[in-house]
Design a protein that fits this description.
The protein is an alpha/beta fold. The protein contains 7 helices and 11 strands. This is 5'-nucleotidase SurE.
């Protein structure tokens, strides 16, 4: 198996080393692991692409490249350039330092990299390590992901929905719980949730030269979410697996809205000399 790995924490991030290990286990001795990752941290860029300016890419060593762009840029660079003659069989994005459960998934460059791979027709998985009080004192905060990552992905490869005949191919968002690996309770397939009362905000700051700046701040990652959601099962010690696709349509609202709006006449303005 030929596997492409990327991330949003940057080419030197410890989570990428964990992912390289996971990918190596999956690829096997006859397989290949290729790395195309951002040269610098790209957290929070979601599915951003560098559409209005060029992206420099550099070969660091055999099958290892750094690009001055987002995770989605890296996936595009791999498919269209670096691996154009030998495309990947699987794309893995992560392992992110911090969770991408709940609302975090909407901002995540890690998820954005997997999404771009899916849009390109490739099987893809985003992986993130939830951090918290129970991981703070671990020698390896990625312990749960490092220990259980390969097995979880192999189960997805064996049993996941990898069909590509839909308009939007599925990809998977996997989050490892904030606990030591020995305390991981198993795997739960869960929908994306949302933490109660936890939102991103802005902290304004005035520089010594009088110019005004802002820092974006996040909400509590320990805030509760709906039972059974990815956030909830992570906090209970389970690895969450969430099938996703790049389709923001609210399908549950389509029929009702169509009944209300489809066929409705648009207001018009009568021309001069015609009845109003």
């Amino acid at each position: 198996m030929r596997i492409l790995i990327t991330n949003d924490d940057g080419i030197n991030a410890p989570g990428l080393e964990v992912l390289s290990q996971i990918a190596g286990q999956l690829a096997g001795p006859q397989g290949e692991v290729w790395t195309v990752a951002p040269a610098f941290e790209q957290s929070g860029v979601a599915h951003c692409i560098s559409y209005t300016h060029p992206t420099m890419i550099a070969r660091l060593s055999e099958r290892r490249y750094a690009a001055e762009g987002s995770p989605a840029d890296c996936v595009l660079a791999a498919i269209a350039d670096v691996m154009a003659r030998t495309p990947p069989d699987l794309v893995l994005s992560g392992v992110n330092r911090g969770n991408n459960s709940g609302e975090n998934a909407m901002y995540s460059g890690t998820v954005g990299g997997a999404m771009e791979a899916a849009l390109q027709g490739l099987p893809a998985v985003a992986l993130s390590q939830y951090l918290g009080p129970r991981t703070a004192d671990l020698a390896d905060p990625f312990e749960a992901a490092r220990t259980h990552g390969a097995a979880v992905i192999q189960r997805l490869l064996d049993h996941g929905d990898w069909t590509s005949d839909e308009d939007f191919r599925l990809f998977y968002n996997v989050n490892f719980p904030p606990c030591p690996s020995a305390e991981v309770r198993g795997v739960r397939v869960a929908p994306q949730g949302r933490r109660q009362g936890a939102r991103f905000g802005v902290v304004p700051y005035e520089a010594p030269n009088g110019r005004r700046f802002m820092w974006v701040s996040g909400g509590s990652q320990q805030a509760p979410a709906r039972a059974g959601s990815d956030v909830a099962v992570n906090m209970e010690g389970y690895v969450s697996v969430t099938p996703m696709r790049a389709d923001l349509t609210c399908h549950a609202s389509l029929d009702g809205l169509a009944r209300a709006l489809n066929g409705a006449a648009a207001p018009c303005v009568a021309e001069a000399g015609e009845p109003g």
